[in-house]
């Protein structure tokens, strides 16, 4: 009982508390994880849309630059006359513009005549620029950025598809993803004299546009048909250039809706991971290009690793774990405290029962409570009282039985049994100290006559008075017993000399000879006394009694009313 129920109750309460805290924590963690992923999806989508708009803005910037170049007087002059001054001016202008725009591979002025001969061309070459000499200029009339641009209405811009640049001698732009934007250069009547072409470094442009994105974000780009142009896994880009198309809608099934025009943006989770990607959140948006664009549209995508999207959830999870642990510990402490409090009255009851069992009396009990424990305490108190009463009555009965077993009920004197015990004790003591004992056997004379003459009650009165007088006549250490009928025995402890014994007996006989008043008359009774001595007349109680009894009969035989020693009879 000491701590068994308390510990079990505490454990139960603690388990319930900790489980509740853990479940709440787990639920909150799950919900927060989901909410964080959803929030990340939304912000990823927003970032992708911003990126799409940046592409558009970036292209508009190129268009503005094209307009500057196409309307520049030196461009017209160069196309008409091919003068060195214009050439010099344009070389400088092109280089200046390329210096200001790191994503430009090349700027050219191409004539509408001479099979589209390049007239001015500046190529990027690492950190420097190459102003291509006249001898190295090529005819480009068969390229659509020349032929198509020349067909454009005045002031409009042509945008090519994004391809790998296989043109010869293009310096930095060789074999790199690129896109040409071109605008016609017209004379005063709007007749095209040639075109100005900006060759755009697609990778470079995207690197610039995505420069402020988090480092673990990955960028995707696909053309209007879904061909992948930008992908973390370089093996998947420009598949069509190697004769094996790799499509974004095959790579990510969720983008199919985008490519076939059903949706303009998608966001999804790619748990399995794909190629160089880990499990990630992905967002793709459709970015329309101008009406005269060969591509018509691009698909721009961003991927964020799921681990980074869930970073907050992980921190939250750790926080929850710590909270659950702290709450769990608190729960255990509170549970133990509650269990102790709840079990205090039970412990009180147990203590009370144990004290009562050890006979240490009653102790404080929670009897004032009005609950089940109070009821139990009151029942226990009642039971204690009943047991107490029963114990008292049992003790009284035991005392009564003991009295009956050892005392004569009429006179209250020790009976034969107790006399036997007293004699045993006295004999062993006398033997140890080498002392004497004297046993007086007293039998009333003609007692039957009193019974017969005055009734049994009179006999009882006489017997009681005799007992009283015998008791008064000897010391407290001496034993006066009634053997039964009218027979009494006195055991004198250390009796002194024979004469001392005789003096006591004479005194006894005098006391007994005095009248006993009964219902207005005086009753008289005499007695015969036989005396035996220890150790002379017997070594045991029985032997001493026999000797004294025999001596008493001899007194009776001599005529009653006197005393005699056992030894004297032999
Ligand atoms: N009133 C009363 N009488 C008792 C009691 N016990 C025994 N008696 C009577 O005591 C008497 C004893 O008789 P005895 O000792 O034979 O006769 P006695 O008259 O004393 O004669 P002796 O001893 O020869 O002198 C009997 O009549 C018993 O009935 C008792 O407790 N009360």
Automatic annotation (TrEMBL):
GO molecular function, one term: diguanylate cyclase activity
Keyword field: Membrane, Nucleotidyltransferase, Transferase, Transmembrane, Transmembrane helix
Enzyme Commission number(s): 2.7.7.65
Residues passing through the membrane, by range: 316-339
Enzymatic class: transferase
Alphabetical list of InterPro entries matching this protein: DGC-Regulatory_Protein, GGDEF_dom, HAMP_dom, Nucleotide_cyclase, Rev_trsase/Diguanyl_cyclase, Sensor-like_sf, VP0354-like_sensor_dom
Keyword Transferase: yes
Domain called HAMP: residue spans: 340-392
PROSITE patterns, per the entry: GGDEF, HAMP
Domain of life per record: Bacteria
PANTHER family cross-referenced by the UniProt entry: DIGUANYLATE CYCLASE DGCT-RELATED, GGDEF DOMAIN-CONTAINING PROTEIN
Protein name listed in UniProt: Diguanylate cyclase domain-containing protein
Organism of origin: Vogesella amnigena
Classification lineage: Bacteria, Pseudomonadati, Pseudomonadota, Betaproteobacteria, Neisseriales
